[in-house]
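Me: I keep going back and forth on a fold encoding question. No explanation is needed for now; the record alone will do.

Assistant:
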Amino acid sequence: MHLASLIIATALTTAALFPVVALGQGQPDLILVHGKIWTENPRQPEAEAVAIRGNRIIEIGESNSILKLAGSSTKVIDLHGRRVVPGFNDAHVHFYMGGDGITSVQLHEASSAEDFRRRIAEFAHSRPKGEWILNGNWDHERWTPAHLPTHQLIDDVTSDNPVFVNRSDGHMCLANALAMKLAGVSRETKDVPGGVILRDAEGNPTGIFKDAAKSLIEHALPRPSMDHILSALQAAQNYATENGVTSVQDMGVFTAHGVDTMADVIRAYQTLEKRGELRVRVSTHLPLADWKRWASAGIMADFGTEKVQLGAVKSFADGSLGSTTAWFFEPYSDAPNTSGIPSPELLHPDEMYQQMRDADRAGLQLAVHAIGDRANRSILDMFERLEREDGASERRLRIEHAQHLSPADISRFAKLHVVASMQPYHAIDDGRWADRRIGPERAKTTYAFRSLLDAGAVLAFGSDWFVAPINPLVGIYAAVTRRTLDGKHLEGWVPEQKISVPEAVHAYTVGAAYASLEDGIKGSLEPGKFADLAVLSADIFHIDAAEIENTRVDVTIFDGKVIFQRKKPY
């Protein structure tokens, strides 16, 4: 029997999902054969096999020719026709916060105020007296009728534990009476620029704090220990790994102690890397206001190691749609008394622009959160001014979310070379109720994936985890089908904004790598790039798009090593 045939026959008879066998002399440490490899390399779009040495790809091609490279210590994985894609790169996460939330109270699936109360009561019963109850990710839009909770709903079941649990978008939180007492918040507490304290008819705080007003409670929160942060990051990367995510772009910790906590998170990433325990590549961000922390140390964009990147800053232009704090030109359809609010930074646009310009001149990369159409235009105007005053460069400006756009602003993304860093899962989540909030006309250019691509913009996809699941396959499903979570838009919510599976995968790989200035080393599968790959349970390019959400990652390869393998095939 021919050597290559013998190898394949041996592989086929082993019991493991992806059998590994040893071969004769050769260079690669690992070879994958008999697959359908989506390379994202336009010169070689698809292949059967890939050879890996160390943490780099050394060859891609046809199975028999790749097998000839094998040596005595080479491991071979027979893919049995399974689909392989580059390791997914989540362009927008809050990684520590997501990991921390895994072990916190779970409120996202609470279907009513009563269910919300029950879940908090049960969790509080299991916690030591005095421990803060945080995270939660509740979504009142799941309730019938939708209404915001108040502190009275949970006070009697949390009398020993301060509570400050966030809505799923992270832009408003519910505090119980004890938390407000510890933070010194009462009816006399003044409103906060860029934030909202909801009050009852007598002027007392209801417990809901939006955007900048959250800081009134957050200053009372204890700063997490390094052990706590390390534990949260370990949980986060386990979750990422099982979803084929090999790179993340961490947008920071947005609390009153956010910048200090994020500095600790960056130390924790470095600690895990030194221990050999970091299993994702991370691009980190600090708040724009703290740009001098990077600059004073001489750090510029895309500085760091193969696994931890520094040199980017992020700021905010407004809040969120779900909290009615996204900033629009026109009032909300269901809240005509408001058009949303600019962020505390954008309340002083000249100062914000000066910080952006200083950070840009220091060589740092800029990313700005903008949801509403007015917020997006304001930032595009600033970016245009920046390029006009400082000239064109490879700065790769980013707008995070780019959620609701005026039609006239769509073409400006390509013209100004602004990356649209978007999270497609939000479209099928918000699409349940967004028409009610902003009306069908504004919805036409909400999550405008198709329009942005057609205009020549670069899309970088992510999840916004902890706000949404980190699973990129669900994100791809959302971008391709736009089927809302309530099952009411089987043909897609705003279906003209659907994109194809290849376009969505590109945004989760090459587009995301481009957004962090790393497309030269990852995002596609070709010789010289990092050996980060995901093996899928189904061929998402050739199945019914509606089935993509049921696809799973069977194997994750990171840095040339198998770091996750699902126990059972799907």
Residues 1-25 have pLDDT under 50 and may be disordered.
